[in-house]
Amino acid sequence: MVQPQMSLHTAPPDGGWGWMVVAGCFLVTVCTRAVTRCISIFFVEFQTYFAQDYARTAWIHSIADCATMVCAPLGSFVSNHLSCQVGIMFGGLLAAAGLILSSFATSLEYLYLTLGALTGLGFALCYTPAIAMVGKYFQKRKALAYGIAMSGSGIGTFILAPVVQLLIEEYSWRGALLLLGGFALNLCVCGALMRPITLKEELIDSPRLLKQDYVPEAQKPGLKHSSTCSPLIEDCTHKSLCYCSRQEYSFFLMPDFIVLAVSFLFLAYGCSPPFVYLVPYALNAGVSHQEAAFLMSILGVIGIVGNITFGWLTDRRFLKKYRIMCYLLAVGLDGICCLILPFLRSFPMLIPFSVTFGYFDGAYVALIPVVTAEVVGTACLSSALGVVFFLHAVPYLVSPPIAGWLVDTTGSYTAAFLLSGFSMIFCSALLCFSKLVKKMKKPRQTLSETNNDSKQQIWTNGEGAYSVTGVRDQKDV
Known about the structure:
Residues 207-241 and 455-477 have low confidence and may be disordered. With 477 residues, the chain is mostly helical. It is globular, with a radius of gyration of 26 Å. Helices cover 76% and strands 3% of the residues. It folds into two domains: 12-197, MFS general substrate transporter like domains (Growth Hormone, Chain: A); 254-437, Growth Hormone, Chain: A (Up-down Bundle), CATH 1.20.1250. Helix 7 (142-150) packs across helix 16 and helix 12 (255-284) runs antiparallel to helix 16 (347-376). It has 19 helices and four strands.
């Protein structure tokens, strides 16, 4: 099979075709995350048609969202061993097939399989590789590029939600799902935009690329040689496959990544309940339905502003070195907003919450891939993002039911929002404590290395070499 031609770069180009990759990733987030959010619009139609309660119907959205995150490592694997273009195009076909088959549904169980599992699997094959590809094309403007790309989720939801409602009214829920399936085929176009690029860092870390035609012969001797891993190049032995897997997931041995991964579990738990229970809480506080819906619109629109502006800000020279600290600040402030929320009992008081929480939510979402890339490097970014999104799956699945149980048990939303806020603050505090410990250890290591170097210094005089340590020992004797 003919391999796609890849261009070799010593560093990310930070522009050029990279902006087309950003546009492709933006459309991928529209076709995946925005469409997933719009599935909830069909709930009333499903309840009426299949005569089922909300609890059973809501599992469709949970399965789709969970499948997208659980299968994220599979998306990284397909992208690494085939290509990003193949993975996204194949995922687009699966997602479109799931939506189209859902239009012929005869039961909720059928929708669990098609609209939930199959569509979620297709989205997983598209989402992670597209986000990883942006990281390969950008370094100096990485946060801004991710801010634009990730804003597709909010913008897509803002536009698609009324469009989907209109389609349901005009063509029924079956016709709307059929048209959404056709819309999801645009993922194949997005895949075509993901032009392969190879960085020098990847060539050193991935020896399997050395036998490709795009590697200049002059550069091959200076790089490590090993057996190839790609199944499209030659048959993989068990030994080479194990070696490749070890190389691709070597970041699991990094203490910084372990701490980051644990923090994501608390972040994913804390960020979900405010979106799910803000409207019920507002209605319980006496806010009208129109005003409660307006609060959610503010969250979505301000989140888009946070995606782009915070990404631009953290790309400035004076903040670029402190991207992780900016990420911690955004997560911590979102947690504080959740702690304050139970004390806001009117519409004018809830508007500042929606603005603040929405902005910092968009801010840290745009920085998640950036922070991950700074920890694991560009070569392992695709695999690392697959693991990161996988870690989001279980908290996304269990946090709304746990919050609902707290509301039922206590009779108020206070405990649910407090747990959410403390979870996000703990995420920020954990990473901050980790950085402080690392900073404290660094001077000690530097001092120890300096002492060792002075003791082991070698003086060369003519043909003889004398050790300072040896001379001192002789004098002592």
